[in-house]
Write a structure and sequence with these properties.
Subcellular location: Cytoplasm; Nucleus
Shape: elongated
Distance between the termini: 107 Å
Strand order of the largest sheet: 1-2
Protein name: Homeobox domain-containing protein
Largest sheet: 2 strands, antiparallel
Main location: cytoplasm
Radius of gyration: 30 Å
Number of helices: 14
GO molecular function, one term: RNA polymerase II cis-regulatory region sequence-specific DNA binding
Strand content: under 5%
InterPro entries: HD, Homeobox_CS, Homeodomain-like_sf, SIX1_SD
Length: about 260
């Protein structure tokens, strides 16, 4: 069985033992774009030519992981799908996380949502990739619902779907997310709010950095929280003051009409 490393695939000759990384694969993929291929011995081939060859080449797990990671980072889902198609079934079923994430991404773009759900529930994934996989999980359920209902979903529709289809433990650390904010983030916002209901811009920026939220999200949270915390008595006082203002204007108008009736005929 002939052998070819990822660097051979992208037009770079393999020389001895090479330590691969997604970054090096990405660089090699970029350099090989648009280059011509030669099939002669010792020559180089492009990714496109390689993906069209027979399934007679073998890869190490490190090389498969490198290629999957590089193609995911490049956003080239079509090429990623072709690369996965090239791999033997034994490699696809090995349970390597990078391959599973690649398969999940391809399944999502093919609208193969049940396959996507099965992959995401098959094993626990590294927490570094939870957010990306969670987005695939929810977006897939949104798209399924939109297809069935024949319309776009509103915020309430999406909220109900998230409740109906909670995240599997394989892509979720178990920390409750409320109003799209992690519990730790909400606690940090609450602690700051108890100390100062009107934080300065610098304090908001620091809070955004600590919580991982945007400055707009932090500002809106404080604004909404202040509105919710207004007591009924404060609300009634505002209404009463407004009523008094309106009544005072009416009294003044009536007084003017009585004092100068001709001017108002």
């Amino acid at each position: 069985m002939s052998y070819m490393s990822p660097r051979d695939v992208v037009g770079v000759r393999a020389a001895g033992s090479i330590s691969l990384s997604p970054g090096s694969c990405m660089e090699a993929l970029s350099e090989s774009s648009g280059s011509s291929a030669t099939a002669a011995a010792g020559g180089s081939v492009t990714v496109s030519d390689f993906l069209q060859t027979k399934r007679s080449l073998s890869f190490s797990s490190e090389q498969v992981s490198c290629m999957c990671e590089a193609l995911q980072q490049s956003g080239d889902v079509d090429r990623l799908a072709r690369f996965l198609w090239y791999l033997p079934p034994s490699e696809l079923l090995r349970g390597q996380e990078t391959v599973l994430r690649a398969r999940a991404l391809v399944a999502f773009h093919r609208n193969a949502f049940h396959e996507l759900y099965a992959i995401l529930e098959s094993q626990s994934f590294d927490s570094r990739h939870h957010l990306q996989l969670q987005q695939l999980w929810f977006k897939a359920h949104y798209l399924e619902a939109e297809k069935i209902r024949g319309r776009s979903l509103g915020a309430v529709d999406k909220y109900r779907l998230r409740k109906k289809y909670p995240l599997p433990k394989t892509i979720w650390d178990g920390e409750e997310t409320v109003y799209c904010f992690k519990e730790k983030s909400r606690n940090a916002l609450k602690d700051c709010y108890l100390k100062n209901r009107y934080p300065t811009p610098d304090e908001k920026r620091e809070l955004a950095r600590r919580t991982g939220l945007t400055l707009t999200q932090v500002s809106n949270w404080f604004k909404n929280r202040r509105q919710r915390d207004r007591t009924p008595q404060q609300h009634r006082s505002v209404v009463t003051c407004n009523s008094c203002l309106v009544n005072s204007k009416l009294v003044v108008k009536l007084h003017c009409q009585l004092m100068h009736p001709i001017n108002h005929l």
